[in-house]
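Hello,

Following up on my earlier ticket. Below are the two sequence lines again, exactly as submitted.
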Amino acid sequence: MTDLSHIRNFSIVAHIDHGKSTLADRLIQLTGTVAERDMKAQLLDSMDIERERGITIKANSVRIEYPAKDGQTYILNLIDTPGHVDFGYEVSRSMRAVEGSLLVVDATQGVEAQTLANVYQAIDADHEIVPVLNKIDLPAAEPERVKAQIEDVIGIDASHAIPISAKTGLGIPDVLEAIVTQLPPPKGDRDAPLKAMLVDSWYDSYLGVVVLIRVMDGVIRKGERIKMMKTGAVYGIDKLAVLKPQMVDIAELGPGEIGIFTGSIKQVRDTRVGDTITHEKRGCAVALPGFKPSIPVVFCGLFPVDANEFEDLRDAIEKLALNDASFTYEMETSAALGFGFRCGFLGLLHLEVVRDRLEREYDIDLITTAPSVVYQIYMRDGTLRELHNPADMPDLTLVDHIEEPRIKATILVPDEYLGDVLKLCQDRRGIQEDLTYAGSRAMVVYDLPLNEVVFDFYDRLKSVTKGYASFDYHLTGYRQDNLVKMQVLVNDEPVDALSMMVHRDRAESRGRQMVEKLKELIPRHMFKIPIQAAIGGKVIARETLSALRKDVTAKCYGGDATRKRKLLDKQKAGKKKMRQFGKVEIPQEAFINALKMDS
Amino acid sequence: MGENLPEGGFGLYLHWPFCQAKCPYCDFNSHVAANIDQARWLRAYEAEIDRIAAETGPRLLRSIFFGGGTPSLMAPETVAAILDRVRLRWPMANDIEITLEANPTSVEAGKFRAFQAAGVNRLSMGVQALNDMDLRALGRMHSAEEAVQAFDIAREIFDRVSFDLIYARQGQSAADWRRELQQALEMAVDHLSLYQLTIEPETVFGRRHAAGKLPNLPDEDAAIDMWEVTQEICDAAGLRSYEVSNHARQGAESQHNLIYWRCGDYAGIGPGAHGRLTSSAGRAATEALRAPGAWLEAVETQGSGEVPRETLSRDDQLSEFLLMGLRLREGVSLDRLTRLGGARLNRPISELEAEGWLSQTEGRLAVTVTGRPVLEAILRRLLTD
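Thanks for your patience. The regenerated structure is below:
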């Protein structure tokens, strides 16, 4: 047990690539927490996807022992939080588990939108914030300009910002010292009933479910029986440890301390981020505030490219879901794509991460249908339906009105690209809420429909700003709008997998895009094929795929019979990858390409 | 045994794998070699003839075809000796057709009389184009004038002469083709093979095309226009198509090629040659080693140039019967179709008939005039369900 005054708990807030993981690595290294030979980059990001993309998806923690200049040794607990908007709730919980934050800003880049979103989370959690200017060794570094920007945009004092280079190690001792001197120690009552927050949990193939906790009050010991207040489940503590970052067993964790426990918990699904953990007996009366169940906001269909892999996909999704409570799924059938699953995600990144893991860790090729948000359909009979899949859109005559989720988007962009960004937001039905300048960068705040963002907003934003814009958002609520279901008909047959919800004003252009793309993707047949986009019975875009005119082989003699027969046999096998719509055969490739998110 | 043999007759194909130069569009098994020991090659052909004849027994031979490569590069004595050996092994029909493919160069024209004396009675000449620029683009060694002269010599020597042209060449328009074809018809005797240029992947053209360096190829619409010009002009000249790319006066059709399209039996001898042989054990697809040196050595040391045979299942035979037979204007016999298990195709056949792609008359099933240019799509409908 460590005295509260000798504990400091903190997180690091940074935009992607601004050096959060490298700084964490340096802190771990300099304090000798990890032996030199065991060091590797991005020590706290354990998933391949995290390392590759340079992002953090799961919270992680490390306990560092630091002998400070005052001659005392301090326990520093760093919680490495996810940095992405998709995991906003998880971030907020991690923030509540610590008392301070290092705000790391790249001195060559300045404040970015993602930094803002996370720093506001830290401010909301009443953190003491220590600004750190990274990459100070680079010639392009502009520490004074960036300090001024931090003060302007975020509104905190940056005059004592610590200049560092996480890469070279410059300034790292100053950061350690600042953690001790500038951040407050945690508060807590050792004699009160146990009250600990479930910060995150993950599955370990040796230990089962591992739960990361921050003790607020009381003491937790190995062998005790604890209760999760939300789920009501009771478990015995099999293992209690701190992370350095490898597990080191510990007899007890007291107030202000951060560590992990295991306790025969079968599924990560049985644990809820933000839940309060107390003793089974003599538990605390009131749970920690702020618990929210996670709610998926983006849905899409996942189908195996090879229909024979459906069962494999089912197994993979079930296994993945055990470890990701925020991911939902239900079986879906599509005339175009066969059997698959309609899955719900916290956001687009979450969607991509889950899809990547299914493809990579379970080796299944997937078709992903266009992502859709959750619409609220107000029926004439007064009932409310949630629409996760455009294919399930009820008959329009029964619908009173439709509401869609809106977001508040913050975009930071060098002013030469501002015009393009405003146009993009305007095109996406955005309503401008704010436009301010911080140096040569503009900060625009837009109210946007989420469905316009899930389509290809990110890619468009990147391309119109040559990658110089940063973007973040949070959900604000639902609003009624003129939304319609657009169907695609090939040779007058509706193709379910291509249905989508669109704003009426955007339907023509989206419909045109889709039919033009399909015209390129569907092979010609012996007859001409109309390809139409329609709303209800009304065609809004149409292309005609002309009939095949000539394909006959010029030469076919004795030696060609075998080759042609084998070609036909191959085509016969290939036909399994074709989907039949009336008389038209559409190769699965065509769906994959038509549905590509960057389309 | 006779009644087990397929209808369609029995022929012999002999492959001579050498050319003077490889044409950039050709994906046939042809090789350029400096010194060819014709005596050694003759012995190998003779050994293969003996081997196959021992297997087939004395079947009536309706045709012999020397293909390649460029068989007009063979010594006429080699051709004569091969034909002598064939005559020894199989009875020949009175009206046997013996074709040799020839390049229309003056050198080769000088050998025509000797080929005729050896027994060749039909010459098929690779003229390909009637203008020099296009001939050069096609990598041909002869000029248009040389071709016309060689052809005139051939006409004097042989009763039956055919020649090939390639259309839908780079930069060619339907009007260009019309003029060229009309000129060709003035030369033609009674048979013409008119092929649309096909870009095969494993060729110089294929590689150039993939690299985007084969510009101005006519598109599909232009190609169909040229196809229609071809039908129109040849019909008017009395050389109607009897097969997709082959046109002849009635009775002047290539008997040898008809054996392929009617799914008859044929022995294939020489590097890469394919054969179809029916026996009481079933129908086999034979294939010889492709590389000339490897084939020669296998014949000499192992007594056979063949690779392992493939026995054709009834479904395989049905596929081949249709994919070959529907190339013919006459189509296929419904009786034979039924015997090969064609009943299972009744549904697609009647759909394709209803849509106007196929028609049935007098016990035969054939592709209609509108269906002919899209035969591959028709075959896919028939054979890939």
